[in-house]
What does this fold into?
Amino acid sequence: MILLAVIAMFFYFQFIKIDWGKEKIQLIHPFYLILTLLLVPINWLIEWLKWVITIHVAEVQTTQKIKLNAFFAGIITGMLTPNMLGNFIGRIYYFDRRNRISLIVLTLVSNYAQFIASIVFGIIGILILGKIPIDLEIDQFNFILIAIGVIVSVFYFNFEWFFKFLKRKARIHLLIRNIKRRRMYRWKILFLSFLRHGIFTLQFSFMLHAFGENLSLENVFWIWQVYLWVTIAPSLLLGKLAIRESIAIWVLTLAGMGELTVLISSFLIWTFNLLLPTIIGLFICKEKR
It folds into this structure.
């Protein structure tokens, strides 16, 4: 909570620096705004595939309707927590107690794979650009950045060592053996997470271009940095709303982008990717009987 307060104060000053009267926002390329919106179903289709694989590996027998309801319930509860970490709360609601441990563990594995995608691509962006929004000589930290990327990836493929310290958790140990037996599970989830990160990148690039910023590979690397800092920044509610926009301003103004353009683009991305699916989910989800 203290760290969150410090971060919130720091990024508060990112907002007050904006000259609201001087800067103007203009939709220059509306086609790219529409294209960003059209990528939303693809974004969530990839997450749906991860969910289907998760249910299959957990060996849970259920109907397509329950899968869909649980998926959208996960979007609703995930939207209320940072980085969608709380999506398992909604997902397990539709399943019997005996299946919940498996679904929780595997959903967290899937979330961690998305975390790895943000970390890995963010580190690549830093290494290529050689710049971060903090006034540091980044060349001195290249080895540390690469080491961090390797460590989070190695843990992903060997996280089961953590469960060795848990006793009398036969169901979890059975799940771990099941995951080991399905060797391609983690690779599939990681591939889909990388693919989804690519969709995020395209959406942000297209949204910025819709308001006049250039489409360039360099800007892609800056966007990767945005997702890196957003991922590791502390927050509590609404998918890091406000924190996300503050970080985007903090990072992308260093790349020469307009503060108001970045703010509006980031907020619209949040609206398209999180708010709209959540509203849809409220209509789709039915009360458990």
Q: What stands out?
A: The chain has one domain: 27-284. The first helix runs from residue 2 to 16. The CA atoms of residues 76 and 279 lie 8 Å apart.
